Amino acid sequence: MSTEPTPRVLVTPAAEATIDLLRDEHGPLMFHQSGGCCDGSSPMCFAKGEFRVGTNDVWLGQIHGCDFFMSAAQFAYWQHTQLTVDVVKGRGASFSLEIPLGVRFLIRSRLFTEEEEQNMAPVYDGEEYLTRPTTAS
């Protein structure tokens, strides 16, 4: 078994390139997926701190240096699924930062294997993650 925890969220090279463009313009970024209807079920990209997260959100990890959060209710359904953030041409109907570029982020998913589930990366509620003590490296 691998010593590295199984990541809960991944990112494609195409999405990384879009994140780089957005970071150049907006600075540090974050993602949130609410699980709502329509584009609310797509991952949305915000300037870091622009979307307020709390105990009703779950931190799943980082993609390309950006924190990725999901609503706790959505996570209850997707906790056994590895998510991959990708980008496709087209305009979504959200407030996500990539919309003016003529692209939108989306999620591709697959179920974790039994072995992967034995070594999962931890999750934190959003408030717990944001207020945790950190150490300088």
Walkthrough of the structure:
The protein is α/β, with parallel strands linked by helices. 23% of the residues lie in helices and 33% in strands. Strands 3-2-5-4-8 form a 5-stranded mixed β-sheet. It has a 3-stranded mixed β-sheet with strand order 1-6-7. Strand 4 (57-63) and strand 5 form a beta hairpin. It is globular. The protein starts with 8 loop residues before the first strand and ends in a 6-residue tail after the last helix. The mean pLDDT is 89. This is DUF779 domain-containing protein. InterPro entries: DUF779 (IPR008497).
Core attributes:
five-stranded mixed β-sheet; DUF779 domain-containing protein; alpha/beta; DUF779; 137 residues; three-stranded mixed β-sheet; 23% helix; single chain
Secondary-structure topology with pairs:
Blueprint: E1 9-11, H1 13-26, E2 29-33, E3 44-47, E4 57-63, E5 66-71, H2 72-78, E6 81-89, E7 103-111, H3 114-117, E8 124-125, H4 126-131
Parallel strand pairs: 1-6, 2-5
Antiparallel strand pairs: 2-3, 4-5, 4-8, 6-7
Poorly predicted runs of 5 or more residues:
none
Compute the gyration radius: what is it?
15 Å
Distance between the termini: 28 Å
Assembly context of the chains: single chain
Overall structural class, as computed from helix and strand content, comes to alpha/beta
The backbone outline, from C-alpha atoms, is globular
The helicity comes to 10-25%
H-E order: EHEEEEHEEHEH
- Helix count from the secondary structure assignment: 4
Whole-number mean pLDDT: 89
Largest beta-sheet characterization: 5 strands, mixed
Pfam family, one: DUF779
Protein name: DUF779 domain-containing protein
InterPro entries: DUF779 (IPR008497)
Organism: Hymenobacter endophyticus
